[in-house]
Write a structure and sequence with these properties.
The chain is mainly α. The chain contains seven helices and no strands.
Length: 121
């Protein structure tokens, strides 16, 4: 069988470079509880908690509910795509935490990427 829901949550969190404490601060869910969920000791969080986690990880709520449902039904994961990409809100929250110098570097990088895309057309 594929990874369980807790392992999936942990991979999402680690992919986003977030610690359990980062998640606790952002969504007001105990890091101890989240750790237990990730290790399969506790059951799937409530829908309200899943919504908070989805927002923190920058994924649609449906990604988490579908994964949780697969586990509840004892099905192997049907998704072979890997982790979903973070949404724009997650990216913007990361941008807000950057220093002014790093924000300038990111803007230059984005301009470079946009120019490359224009050149492909």
């Amino acid at each position: 069988m594929g990874e369980n829901f807790g392992e999936f949550l942990k991979k999402l969190r680690e992919d986003r470079k977030m610690s359990l404490y980062d998640v606790e601060r952002e969504v007001k869910i105990s890091n101890a509880y989240l750790s237990q969920v990730e290790r399969g000791i506790r059951n799937t969080p409530s829908l309200k908690q899943l919504a908070k986690l989805a927002k923190a990880y920058g994924v649609p709520l449906s990604v988490l509910t579908e994964k949780a449902n697969e586990e509840l039904q004892g099905k192997e994961s049907t998704s072979k795509k890997g982790l979903p990409a973070p949404d724009i809100n997650f990216i913007c929250r990361g941008y807000e935490k950057l220093s002014e110098d790093n924000k300038k570097m990111l803007k230059k990088f984005l301009n470079t990427l946009q120019n490359e895309e224009k050149g492909k057309k």
